[in-house]
């Protein structure tokens, strides 16, 4: 009997293995078809209710992190799609999540540190060819944004010519390549008053100064739509600006640096005589915010939900999250989430609830 069972089960397994060996190309093509069908032409934003949503397309920092792209968030307000910061890998994550790059309408830069702009080129390129744009993509940001956008436009000019020559002017209209900078003025240093940056179809965006010195200027943003609000801190040390401009927000997306974990990096780098990197890990302590301080600011502002992005140092495992947060949960009465690439926070219009989704970036 045992022999009969073995021949039945083992024979089936052997037949399957022989089929794989005999038809590897067919099986591979079918696997490719399934993978392509799951992603190509998908628009996951259509599953969202009317409201204000943020999808985290990059929650990392300049430090290498295999699980996190550079700083990048997508804001979806009704049917409008915006990008806040364009760190390296963000554009690819936007595609992997199932958000068509061609639907991006505007980019908002918090400041001009390399890790917040080094993915701008792909964002501009894919927004252009993804929708056959006939006008450059608007890029809002503080003083200096014009130089950055002009630099990317120049760097991508040769490639843009290739795209039009290859795909034709309908897919890649020459007039729509690149970006157009829309820099805005800010109040004097020390004045945390918000300034209007964009308004349209019920969406308002304001910018406000933060303190990331010597990086100057640096800003945060507040997005509002149909009674819901999301605030982005940008990179900043603790500042009264966050409490003032995040007042009553449904969601605060805040940077976070845990000095105790960075100190471990400093110790190892010093032991290995990595002088320059050791100095950098010491320098970054004075222009970022600890999770504990961010939590205290969120509490003072009456924020409902605090999400950490631009997380320092890299955390290859969630086991590290409690050490990263420290006693942040004791300082904030709302919900705290350590942001991960692919997380989506949905705020339905006119309501008070929030739903957390995950869109795959793998």
Topology readout:
Elements: H1 2-22, H2 24-39, E1 51-58, E2 72-77, E3 80-86, H3 90-97, E4 104-108, H4 114-117, H5 120-131, E5 137-141, H6 145-167, E6 179-183, E7 195-200, E8 203-209, E9 219-225, E10 228-232, H7 240-245, E11 251-257, H8 259-271, H9 275-283, H10 291-301, E12 305-312, H11 321-325, H12 328-331, E13 335-338, E14 343-348, E15 355-358
Parallel strand pairs: 3-4, 4-5, 5-6, 10-11, 11-12, 12-13
Antiparallel strand pairs: 1-2, 1-14, 2-3, 7-8, 8-9, 9-10, 14-15
Estimate the helix proportion, in percent. 25-40%
Strand order of the largest sheet: 6-5-4-3-2-1-14-15
Q: Examine the coordinates and then state which fold CATH places here, giving the name of the CATH topology of the largest domain.
A: Metallo-beta-lactamase, Chain A
| Total domain modules | 2
Alpha-beta content class: alpha/beta
Helix count equals: 12
Proportion of strand residues: 15-25%
Largest sheet report: 8 strands, mixed
The value of Rg in angstroms is 23 Å
Instruction: Give the ordered list of helices and strands.
Output: HHEEEHEHHEHEEEEEHEHHHEHHEEE
CATH architecture of the largest domain: 4-Layer Sandwich
